[in-house]
TrEMBL record, chains A, B:
This is Aminotransferase class III-fold pyridoxal phosphate-dependent enzyme. GO terms for molecular function: pyridoxal phosphate binding; transaminase activity. It comes from Xanthobacter tagetidis. Keywords: Aminotransferase, Pyridoxal phosphate, Transferase. InterPro entries: Aminotrans_3 (IPR005814), Aminotrans_3_PPA_site (IPR049704), PyrdxlP-dep_Trfase (IPR015424), PyrdxlP-dep_Trfase_major (IPR015421), PyrdxlP-dep_Trfase_small (IPR015422). Its cofactor is pyridoxal 5'-phosphate. Belongs to the class-III pyridoxal-phosphate-dependent aminotransferase family.
Length: 446, 446
């Protein structure tokens, strides 16, 4: 399990304990700011990169730091329609001066947004419960699934991350730095021929069925299969389209629900569909939304069937004070409009395809580039050892920091941390994509 | 347990199943809007009042509806420095156009706000972990307490409400419409002479100690005493100041932590202290913050001791994507400044005292007014039967709807729902307070 602490450090600023930050090369100003952060945030403080960034502004796919340097952002999926998108900024500015309160009153922007959002979902997904975060969405989804099924058991992928509440951490194996999830959580390997051979869909469904049987054999009952519809923290696994359908069928056949976590792939990122589940020809029982929904304003949601909400309302009800507040809904509405008006799903498709094609061109000269996976503007690039093609987490870490010095921000994913994660704002231009590939090639060719 | 469903209905719009909303008197426009809401939100839809409000704007302590009517707001504590406070509005407008991203970079407004917030806490509460909601704050607090203590058991008040995640619902007895909390949660009656006689502090501490012993006797171990520092959902119990200190000592003597939920009383509402715990001369191990922190922008926090965060960081770490985002921190900073510049804590003290004094004057002529409890601008007014002084939830419900027709918004609290809850924005003026008392008197004198 020590591996996981190291993975964190691949992306994180993690000087040796007791190190003098100034003499370690940060300079006085940056060292002072890092010390301030650590004093306030304490042990849970995490900053990115060997030299943390002091960010002062952002626009489109560009971050600007205090020294005036500009960075191309291939990391941040939250500002999904672009940092500081004028439409979102204008909507928030207007609403915050008008009204911002809970949803136990009738408020036009709340009801307009709820309808506009639900119009993007197929039947029978007709109800929405607003939350503030993807974590809250997945927490509520687990409660709905457990009440509906009578079971507690959940099947997730080996390196899943679904959020940070107590209940959601239990179904997030990647959050455990020591030990692992409780016995009512079972894991399956991510969809990949390395685990399942040529028939990924069949193999994955059989693994899910076996995990469900193991849960039942241990007396836990089965509540839900919960997965990202592009497996994110497992290293960006998207293919083959359709592979989730047999697994969802297996979950339902066993009396459980299929929960699609769209926090990462949702809102057009895959380039061909608004939601990742649509690539698989399956309609989930519960869909959870978060990060990109409000372009940075805290907004999440559970979208589900009315018959799943009704017994939950009888037993508990659900109310979230800030969930679906007018400012959040105004931001959400602007995001939907920006996605359509700016053609961002189409842009994700074409620019994502361009990156994949250029990586394929680059690969013969750069044997460190291994497999490339994903869909639209959500790609994973395995970094491997030149000698034997084995995963190279240290190489990935070196690349992340080398790209940062060339003004390009990127992160890593996967259980070993050797997969570069390309997950930019959806407004990334072809020129910006090219500048990333050019920089990657220059570094790899040394 | 059916009682609780009825309590919900005391405040809520709850027509008979299948009722025709138009002919039930809502009119076509309102009926249409209610139907829209119910179609989108489904069974978890809850609207306030027999005639739901269609709100279009808010400023200070006033809400405006679509028909141009203005309502005095005695209910909403989230816009704590006032609806649409110019300072908060300006701060959000500036920041949302500049930068709004997660906290793994150094960002001035995030680090400034963290320091400014922590400056309001006594040693050893030196670290902050930002969240988006009070629910997330209490969820994290439970995780910290359980890891530190090795126990799972929690002691809360009989009608406590601490939030809506799976873990926090377990410690929120008032959330259960059927059944009750799991066996590792034990409840104690709220601090009141009716339960504890004259020595409320001693009796409450003995009840907490007995609950801890019961937890241990059942093999659960003890993690924490978790209470509002003004007991809110139990019916607004604040006195005597200091009563929490012996209970916190009992919790610590038993190897557990004392978690102060400041979501309701925090940020000056009590009129004499920034935090409710300060009225009790006790420093908690963990403080949880939410609702009023960002005046409507989703923002919460856990403030705690560094030695409690460190082992948690080793085991899990904590990161919250939207937690402490620049827009949220800009709002939070503006709230702290508005509280000081507008003298809102002092206003809470004087206007709260004025309401209490005028209620005392009104009481002889209005026997429906029972006990009045609370501190600052957080008051509970028991509504009782004229004949025998027994709790009168139906009377409270009638008053809430009668006040609404006179342009005054208020809610209810307590296990029976017979306590009017006065919890306005802290900018409530003396004139506004008087208009509430005048209306209440006019209704009660009929």
């Amino acid at each position: 399990m020590e591996r996981k602490k190291e993975i964190l450090a691949l992306n994180a600023f993690a000087p040796a304990p007791g190190a003098d930050l100034v003499s370690a090369g940060l300079g006085e100003d940056l060292a002072h700011r890092v010390e301030r952060r650590r004093r306030s945030f304490g042990a849970t403080s995490v900053l990115f990169y060997d030299r943390p960034l002091h960010v002062v502004a952002a626009r489109g796919a560009t971050l600007t730091t205090a020294d005036g340097a500009r960075y191309l952002d291939l990391y941040n999926n939250v500002p999904s329609v672009g940092h500081g998108h004028p439409k979102v900024v204008a909507a928030v500015r207007a609403q915050v001066g008008q009204l911002n309160i809970h949803s136990r009153y009738l408020i036009d922007v709340v009801d307009d947004y709820a309808e506009r959002l639900l119009a993007h979902f197929p039947a029978p997904l007709a109800n929405v419960a607003f939350t503030c975060t993807g974590s809250e969405s997945n927490d509520l989804a687990l409660r709905l699934a457990r009440l509906a099924s009578g079971g507690r058991g959940v099947v997730v992928s080996e390196s899943a991350y679904h959020g940070n509440t107590a209940a959601v951490t239990e179904v997030s194996p990647s959050s455990y730095r020591k030990g692992g999830p409780p016995s009512f959580v079972r894991t399956v390997p991510p969809p990949h021929p390395a685990h399942y051979g040529a028939d990924v869909a069949g193999g994955f469904a059989r693994a899910v069925a076996a995990a469900i049987n193991a849960l039942k054999a241990h007396g836990h009952g089965f509540a839900a299969l919960l997965v990202d519809t592009i497996f994110s923290s497992d290293g960006v696994h998207a293919d083959p389209p359709g592979f989730l359908a047999p697994a969802a069928a297996a979950a339902r056949a066993a009396g459980g629900l299929f929960i699609a976590d769209e926090v990462q792939p949702g809102f057009g990122r895959t380039g061909t569909n608004m939601w990742g589940f649509a690539r698989h020809g399956v309609v989930p029982d519960i869909v959870t939304l978060g990060k990109p929904m409000g372009n940075g304003i805290a907004l999440g949601a559970v979208v589900t069937r009315p018959d799943l909400l009704a017994p939950f309302a009888d037993a508990f009800g659900y109310f979230n004070t800030f969930g679906g507040s007018p400012v959040a809904c105004a931001a959400g509405l602007a995001v939907l409009e920006a996605l359509a008006e700016d053609g961002l799903m189409e842009n994700a498709r074409t620019v994502g395809a361009r990156i994949a094609a250029r990586l394929a061109d680059l690969r013969p000269a750069c044997p460190a580039i291994g497999e490339v996976r994903g869909a639209g503007l959500y790609l994973g690039i395995d970094i491997v050892a030149r000698a034997d093609g084995r995963p190279d987490p240290e190489g990935a870490s070196g690349l992340i920091n080398a790209l940062r010095t060339r003004g390009i921000l990127i992160g890593a994913a996967g259980p070993l941390g050797h997969t570069l994660k390309v997950r930019p704002p959806l407004c990334l231009t072809a020129d910006e994509a090219d500048s990333f590939i050019d920089a990657l090639g220059a570094i790899l060719r040394g």
